[in-house]
């Protein structure tokens, strides 16, 4: 390992630390799931100085793995099966149309068969699956386990026996609410429970413990008086064959609900003489008949002698049981006899078969021909249909009938045909503001013959059959079950792809209270608009029970028969010792004790207890309200629910979440808890800081904030938080956290040999940073904090309108930023709609300064602006910052509008402010300082600057401190401006130049003239974003929204023509465009050079991928670059407004690889020193050569002579005279 680390650090310390801190170094398992890393974007940021991104997000990540995404969380109840990428993000393995509530690894004979998943879904990963499915981690395939109908809430995979125990609210085989799966469905010997199962665990004795809301073992049963629910035959399409033409006897419909006593014209149907024929009914709803009652005709000595009953759905002739004239039981099929008398004759279906079309074929007759005087069809199933024509009629005095009532009676609800895709036609309503005001509802009123315990189920047709999946929503189901009890109420999602049912009530229903009649009412959940609501049918199913249980049952799988003496089980006795109607939501085992949690009380026990040899209360008497879930980790039980304290009120801070230590028998709070109910506690390993992987607990529920405690403030959230046990704190309170999580988790499971699986909707981004981050490095850049935390500000309606007028996205966050590094200052400025905490602890909003001039960073802001102000544009002149947008307030005792000026040296408003802009809804969309001047150009939507008429564009002279008008001929709204030279300004937006509408115009400061930039007027809408494509400013990229359909466009202008690029999906909004250089060439393209890419920022919908907050276009393809999330507001993905740099002039410099400025200086110095050294060496060599050529010889260094030879003076002077003489001769 040491050698590996040394090799990594040889690559560079930054790269080594990145690799070592990657979560992949902490992976505990392997995964067969394909996780392909995407290629590097190869961005060259080396010449840009500091680079930052501004936007509206809570967290942000680089796009690193194929499939990684940021799509908004679904609000229609759907979820996903998830695993994790090496970078900690979540990978979707399959989506569902509802919840995955429970999972467990299914092992048989030591081999993993797959992961069993249960919930209330009807589709998982594109496979139709009713409530349960099997996921194979080796192949990533999903297999339905057909045969179960309903909701699965609990699973226990027993490795010892190779059995999966399944619990919930469902029917399967001959069992209700509990089943087993081995190689197929297997009925449990006790045939299930008379109420739903919520939790299953194996205890120390090897027995299976079921927890739920039941009172005994049992199953669905028939009423004490069977065959009394009359099927409505009059609502179908009635046809016949061989019918008589006699007047009053030819209509087959006239025998429905008639008796033999009414035999005669207008009440009887006859066949032609000596002719076989049939009576047929086809219906738009399904039924499961148990009995048919026929009345034979005696008209003119006629009558039916033999017949058979044919199920037209299957084409089979059904077996019927009847009693003959002697009262003996008989069976028939192809030739069933009908006595020739006026009394009815009943035939029972053995077995009952579901159908919606049937035929009575008459094969023999009495007298001249056959016929019938009456027909009735009965069933045991008790339904009330939304389509009232399907409800039980008041027929033959045997039924009081069922009914449904719709509100309003006309105009809102329409009948939708089943087309063979669901069991019956149903009602549909499209709910908008208008229909919500009318109180749309459907009330179902069944015909119940007896009081008793009923399971009430509401059926919802799938959305695929009527193409309403995109608009389905939620409905309220309320019901009155007894005359003196409060109504029940629950919410049901209708987003199922295929048909489903939801149990909305289990319990006693009273029918013996005079005029009282049970009913269920369906209404849309308030607050939904443009949502499709459907209403089909409600079923009341009578349930039998052994009794003797109360939410708990211990099952011994080694016994072939069930012992109903429940007193032999301490667990069963513990449940029975509680008050009746106990609800057990969760069970867990630790050592030899069972821990039970839910909504119950009795014998000093409240909502949680332990069971050994008997039931024992936990310290403090338990918890003071319902417990929804338990997560066990060693000796600690983490609990979530609706409680606020122990029952005796002595442990503060247990708000909806609590930890109980079994060893110390003590309670502990999680901070101060949360402010609403908690439904699920799901474990999750989190890389909290780079290189530190810790076991955490996600807390999921319906709360809106995490309560503050100690020095930590309250945090607003959307029902999600993460507790870090090792730090005894919430994740969001910890310093230097490098991951942000949002969404919801419902369940998770370990999978032997593979990575864990999760279910829910969750996003994990690399950095938990809000609205502004730095982009560092080239090639594959990284993300880095700017050193502050930004929170969203609530904008008013008027502000949103102003943003819409400029084509700006309706978002909070940071809109714009700039780096200022002149005059010995080092300041980062951010502007937008947000709040942040200053260094001194005060709150600053919408315009802040991150000052790194001194050794310690300081965050400051300004006051005086209205909270609804938004800064959308900025530029500087010397040390003056001009900031504009939708800005109002009071500065230096004067009103400002659209623009303020701040002195960056002092961090305060400049002493002199430009006179306020005015005229309509003032908004400054762009600010650009003219190069090499002290003049600032301001563009947007306004009419005057102070008292100066100055529409759309005006410039401010900072030396003269006054506004000036640039000329005439321009009107409209400016969204963006760019100087293309010292005297030429490019303007874009929604413009009119000299009476001609355009989107781009130029302005020349010398001629003070405006001109249309291009004669090509094919852009479909206003330009909201503009970027030059080259340093000569002859090619441009533009983006905006189409005026016709509000869709985004992207176009390139060159050679006086626009070229449109079709790479954007629906819902795209581009907030920024920027050309960037690359470190490596990409494929050739006519749209972009090989060393350039176009950065698109905003909310970019990439076809076949989904949404990204920033994407890179290389001239042929659009690829994701940055992904963001935003938990505030509606949740889901955020957006990026754009990029700003400290060296903006380099954005238009040449491409290719560039060395950093410091390195260039060092290299230049090295080359200079080398050249100097080389010149010195050459000079020495030349001088030596010259001396040698002139006869110079080195002086002798022989010291043996004791002294140098002396030169006589006369010889020396003679030499001098010779030199002088020779010099004079040359002159």
TrEMBL record:
This is Cellular morphogenesis protein. GO terms for cellular component: plasma membrane of growing cell tip. The keyword Calcium does not apply. InterPro entries: Gal_Oxase/kelch_b-propeller, Rax2-like_C, Rax2-like_second, Rax2-like_third. The keyword Coiled coil does not apply. Residues 399-418 have a biased composition (Polar residues). Residues 899-1148 form the Rax2-like C-terminal domain. Residues 227-372 form the Rax2-like second domain. Residues 397-418 are annotated as: Disordered. The chain crosses the membrane at residues 1155-1182. Residues 383-543 form the Rax2-like third domain. Keywords: Membrane, Transmembrane, Transmembrane helix.
């Amino acid at each position: 390992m040491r050698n590996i680390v040394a090799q990594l650090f040889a690559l560079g310390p930054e790269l080594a630390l990145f690799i070592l801190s990657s979560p992949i170094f902490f992976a505990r398992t392997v995964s067969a799931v394909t996780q392909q890393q995407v290629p590097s974007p190869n961005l060259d940021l080396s010449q840009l100085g500091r680079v930052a991104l501004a936007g509206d997000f809570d967290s942000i990540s680089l796009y690193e793995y194929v499939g990684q995404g940021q799509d908004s969380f679904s609000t229609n109840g759907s979820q996903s099966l998830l695993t994790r990428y090496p970078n900690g993000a979540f990978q979707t393995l399959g989506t569902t149309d509802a919840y995955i509530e429970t999972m467990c690894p299914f092992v048989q004979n030591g081999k993993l068969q797959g992961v069993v998943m249960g919930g209330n879904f009807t589709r998982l990963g594109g496979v139709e699956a009713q409530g349960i499915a099997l996921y194979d981690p080796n192949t990533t395939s999903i297999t339905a386990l057909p045969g179960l109908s309903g909701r699965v809430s609990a699973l226990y995979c027993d490795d010892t026996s190779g059995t999966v125990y399944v619990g919930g609210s469902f029917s399967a085989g001959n069992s209700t609410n509990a089943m087993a799966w081995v190689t197929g469905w297997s009925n449990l010997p006790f045939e299930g429970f008379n109420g739903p199962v919520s939790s299953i665990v194996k205890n120390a004795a090897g027995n299976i413990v079921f927890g739920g809301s039941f009172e005994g073992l049992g199953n669905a049963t028939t009423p004490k008086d069977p065959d009394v629910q009359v099927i409505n035959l009059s609502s179908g399409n009635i046809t016949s064959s061989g019918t008589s033409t006699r007047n009053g006897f030819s209509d087959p419909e006239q025998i429905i609900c008639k008796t033999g006593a009414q035999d005669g014209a207008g009440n009887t149907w006859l066949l032609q003489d000596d002719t076989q024929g049939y009576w047929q009914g086809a219906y738009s709803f399904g039924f499961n008949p148990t009995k048919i009652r026929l009345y034979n005709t005696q008209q003119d000595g006629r009558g039916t002698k033999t017949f058979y009953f044919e199920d037209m759905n299957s084409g089979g002739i059904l077996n019927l049981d009847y009693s003959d004239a002697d009262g003996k039981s008989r069976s028939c099929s192809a030739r069933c006899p009908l006595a020739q008398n006026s009394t009815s004759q009943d035939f029972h279906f053995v077995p009952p078969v579901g159908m919606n079309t049937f035929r009575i074929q008459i094969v023999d007759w009495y007298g001249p021909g056959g016929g019938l005087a009456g027909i009735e069809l009965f069933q045991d199933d008790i339904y009330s249909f939304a389509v009232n024509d399907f409800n039980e009629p008041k027929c033959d005095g045997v039924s009081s009938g069922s009914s449904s009532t719709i509100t309003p009676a006309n105009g809102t609800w329409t009948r939708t045909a089943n087309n063979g895709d669901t069991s019956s036609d149903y009602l549909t309503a499209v709910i908008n503001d208008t229909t919500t005001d009318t109180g749309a509802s459907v009330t179902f009123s069944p015909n119940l013959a007896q009081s008793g315990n009923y399971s009430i189920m509401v059926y919802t047709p799938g959305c695929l059959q009527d193409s309403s999946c995109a608009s389905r929503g939620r409905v309220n189901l309320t019901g009155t079950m007894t005359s003196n009890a409060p109504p029940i109420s629950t919410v049901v999602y209708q987003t199922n792809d295929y048909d489903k049912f939801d149990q909305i009530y289990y319990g006693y229903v009273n029918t013996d209270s005079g005029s009282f009649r049970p009913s269920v009412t369906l209404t849309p959940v308030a607050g939904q608009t443009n949502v499709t609501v459907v209403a089909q049918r409600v079923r009341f199913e009578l349930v039998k029970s052994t009794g003797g249980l109360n939410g708990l049952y211990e099952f011994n799988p080694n016994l072939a028969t069930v012992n109903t003496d429940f007193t032999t089980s301490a667990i069963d006795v513990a449940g029975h010792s509680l008050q009746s109607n106990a609800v057990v939501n969760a069970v867990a085992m630790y050592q030899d004790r069972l821990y039970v949690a839910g909504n119950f009380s009795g014998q000093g026990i409240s909502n949680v207890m332990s069971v050994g040899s008997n039931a024992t209360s936990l310290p403090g008497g338990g918890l003071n309200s319902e417990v929804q879930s338990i997560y066990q980790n060693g000796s600690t039980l983490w609990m979530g629910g609706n409680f606020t304290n122990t029952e005796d009120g002595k442990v503060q801070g247990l708000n909806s979440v609590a930890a109980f230590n079994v060893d110390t028998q003590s309670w502990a709070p999680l901070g101060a808890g949360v402010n609403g109910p908690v439904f699920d506690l799901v474990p999750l390993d989190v890389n909290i800081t780079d290189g530190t992987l810790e076991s955490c607990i996600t807390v999921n529920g319906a709360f809106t904030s995490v309560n503050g405690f100690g020095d930590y403030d309250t945090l607003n959230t959307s029902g999600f938080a993460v507790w870090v046990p090792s730090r005894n704190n919430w994740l969001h309170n910890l310093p230097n956290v490098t991951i942000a999580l949002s969404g919801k988790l419902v369940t998770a499971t370990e999978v032997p040999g593979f990575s864990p699986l999760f279910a829910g909707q969750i996003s994990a981004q690399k950095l938990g940073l809000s609205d502004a981050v730095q982009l560092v490095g080239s090639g594959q850049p990284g993300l880095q904090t700017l050193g502050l935390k930004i929170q969203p500000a609530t904008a008013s309606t008027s502000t949103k309108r102003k943003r819409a007028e400029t084509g700006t996205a309706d978002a909070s966050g940071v809109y714009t930023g700039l780096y200022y590094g002149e005059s010995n200052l080092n300041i980062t400025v951010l502007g937008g709609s947000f709040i942040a905490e200053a260094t001194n602890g005060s709150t600053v909003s919408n315009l802040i300064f991150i000052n790194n001039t001194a050794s310690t960073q300081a965050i400051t802001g300004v006051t005086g602006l209205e909270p609804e102000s938004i800064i959308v544009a900025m530029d500087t002149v010397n040390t003056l910052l001009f900031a504009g947008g939708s800005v109002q307030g009071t500065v230096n005792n004067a009103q400002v509008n659209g623009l303020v000026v701040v002195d960056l040296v002092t961090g305060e408003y400049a002493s002199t402010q430009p006179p306020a802009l005015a005229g309509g809804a003032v908004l400054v969309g762009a600010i650009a300082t003219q190069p090499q001047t002290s003049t600032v150009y301001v563009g947007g939507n306004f009419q005057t600057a102070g008292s100066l008429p100055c529409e759309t564009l005006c410039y401010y002279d900072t030396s003269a401190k006054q506004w000036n008008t640039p000329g005439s001929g321009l009107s409209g709204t400016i969204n963006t401006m760019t100087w293309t030279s010292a005297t030429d300004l490019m303007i874009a937006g929604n413009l009119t130049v000299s009476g001609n509408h355009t989107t781009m115009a130029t302005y020349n400061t010398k001629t003070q003239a405006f001109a249309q930039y291009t004669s090509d007027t094919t852009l479909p809408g206003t330009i909201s974003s503009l970027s030059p494509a080259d340093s000569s400013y002859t090619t441009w990229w533009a983006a905006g929204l189409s005026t016709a359909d509000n869709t985004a466009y992207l176009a390139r202008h060159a050679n006086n023509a626009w070229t449109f690029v079709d790479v954007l999906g629906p819902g795209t909004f581009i907030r920024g465009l920027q050309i960037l250089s690359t470190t490596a060439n990409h494929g050739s393209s006519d749209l972009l050079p090989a060393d350039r890419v176009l950065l698109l920022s905003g909310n970019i919908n990439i076809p076949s991928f989904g949404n990204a907050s920033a994407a890179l276009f290389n001239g042929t393809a659009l690829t994701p670059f940055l992904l963001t999330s935003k938990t505030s507001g509606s949740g889901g993905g955020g957006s990026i407004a754009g990029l700003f740099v400290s060296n903006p002039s380099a954005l238009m410099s040449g491409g290719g690889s560039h060395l950093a400025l410091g390195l260039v200086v060092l290299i230049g110095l090295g080359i200079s020193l080398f050249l100097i050294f080389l010149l010195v060496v050459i000079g020495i060599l030349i001088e030596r050569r010259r001396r040698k050529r002139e006869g110079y010889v080195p002086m002798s260094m022989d010291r043996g002579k004791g002294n140098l030879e002396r030169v006589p003076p006369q010889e020396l002077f003679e030499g001098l005279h010779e030199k002088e003489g020779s010099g004079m001769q040359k002159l």
